[in-house]
Amino acid sequence: MKRLKIIGAGLAGCEAAWRASTLGLEVVLHEMKPLKYSPAHKSPKPAELVCSNSFRSDSPDNAVGLLKEELRKMGSLVMLAADETRVPAGKALAVDRELFSARVESLLNSRGNVKIVSGEVESLDLASEEPVVVATGPLTSEPMAEFLRGLTGSGRLSFYDALAPIVSGESLDMEKVFPADRYGKGGGDYLNAPFTKEEFEIFLEALTGADRVEKRAFEDEKYFEGCLPVEVMAQRGPKTLLFGPMKPVGLIDPRTGRKPYAAVQLRRENLAGTLWNIVGFQTRLTRGGQDKVFRLIPGLEKAEFARYGAIHRNTYLDAPEALDPFQRLLKAPSVFIGGQLSGVEGYVESAAHGLVAGENAARAILGLEPVRPPRETALGALLGHLAPFERRGPFAPSNVSFGLFPAPDPSVPKKDRAAFRTERARRSLALFLQETSYVPPA
Predict the structure, then answer these.
(1) For position 71, what pLDDT does the model report?
(2) What would the mean pLDDT of 78-107 be, rounded to a whole number?
């Protein structure tokens, strides 16, 4: 049986392994845990969710929901495990993170031709010319990062990804927080902490003046705009919070019968509701600062932190300069890059990219031509960000969005363009799957 080596058992690596095993290859999946951990990882399980337990919207009328739909049609391991371990979160897909990782591990072990090997891989043997998938993620260890930097010649860039705090459900004051989804959409799966104007101003002053963790000498403050620390948002002015994670629109405080001046939402971390994530409150405050500031949130005065917010440096390639359209390194075509190391951002995007890397690496071993989904699909649009037809300035990581899709014909009314893109993507994917004789995993 022919063999594929995959380095990294995060979402992308696991997805690549699942896909390659479906095509009949023996897969050796290398993971440095539990022998070595990154600064953000804690669990020995594969596919550990670090930043959040949410995969974001599950509605196909937006780009990430459409990407999920495509992944399900393509037999995605991550979507299968997420659907089986989901917790209530309105229109979002959120999971019990421990059950999710355990289910991914169980599904991989059930294949019979996937072997997970513990131990750090620091470099690659390029002389062998055997295809390999590198899916070591945004927290790639220093030895592998240095190897890739020397290999690509384009260097590496860094930005910051932040973790939101998680609090105990039992420590919340349920007389102050109330269940509701914005605009009444969903089943009231979120908890909301309402602020008066005075409470918000006190909170804002404390937040902007709180102690922060000092950045280390090698760290530059290049924050990813989709995951800004809450204190950085606050420094941009109060409206940044009021139109961001603390927007009260569509909420009515049952105690007053009125819309609160501001509101913080909490999303359950597990099915039992014993843990709650403070949505959008990723932070670089010290633990003492978090204790002081976040307990000013109404209903969280006695909050018990199951996890404090934190921040870490992410590493990714300058994809337009380093990768070809099939996600191979231009200077080492036997090396396929999977997941966030390529410059995609987000759980769903990472899994999707891993699926493509696993597919094309397996095809290379089997002597088949590589494939690339059409630009009109969500997956193809995401890949188009990494290998654009023309360079559009400095490269930065990105989530999938309709802005990455080819523009609709100007005759399509603006209000209909999302639906137009969705239907066009569905037709394009169906044709792609038919033309490539794509077989989803059983």
Answers:
(1) 98
(2) 96
Nearest alpha carbon to residue 430 among 373, 351, 360, 387:
373
Rg from Cα positions in the chain: 22
CATH number, domain at 146? Answer: 3.50.50.60
Residues 287, 300: one domain? Answer: yes
Percent of the chain that is helix, strand, coil (3-state, to 5): 35, 20, 45
Residue 336, in any domain of the structure: yes
- Write out pLDDT tens, residues 204-231: 999 999 998 876 544 555 666 667 889 9
Domain containing 89 equals 3-156+317-435
Measuring CA to CA, how many Å separate 202 from each of 207, 208, 252, 386? Answer: 9, 10, 22, 43
Residue type, 432: F
Contacts of the segment 291-298: beta carbons below 8 A, 24+ positions apart = 292/206, 292/210, 293/203, 293/206, 293/207, 293/210, 294/165, 296/199, 296/202, 296/203, 296/206, 297/193, 297/195, 297/203, 297/264, 298/173, 298/176, 298/177, 298/193, 298/194, 298/195, 298/199
For the whole prediction, is pTM greater than 0.70? yes
What is the average per-residue pLDDT within 345-369?
96
Bridge partner residues of 54 (DSSP) = 94
Among 313, 347, 368, give the residue marking a domain's end. Answer: 313
| Matching residue, tokens 């917010």 | 309
For position 183, what pLDDT does the model report?
74
Round to whole Å and give the CA distance between 189 and 179.
6
Identify which of 208, 211, 168, 175 has the alpha carbon closest to the alpha carbon of residue 194: 175
Taking alpha carbons only, the member of 182, 165, 194, 168 closest to residue 273 is 168
The pLDDT of residue 218 is 43
Phi, psi for 28 (deg, rounded to 5): -110, 115
Residues 419-433 have pLDDT tens digits of 999 999 999 999 999
Q: How far apart are CA 326 and CA 328, in angstroms?
A: 6
Report whether 9 contacts 29 (CB < 8 A).
Answer: yes
Tokens of 58: 């599950």
> CA-CA distance, 298 to 199, in Å (whole number)?
8
Residues 121 and 202 in one domain: no
Angle at 310 between CA 305 and CA 315, to 5 degrees: 150
Sign, CA torsion 153/313/358/407 = negative
Please report which residue ranges of 130-283 form alpha helices under DSSP H: 142-152, 197-209, 230-235, 238-242
pLDDT tens per residue across span 285-312: 999 999 999 999 999 999 999 888 877 6
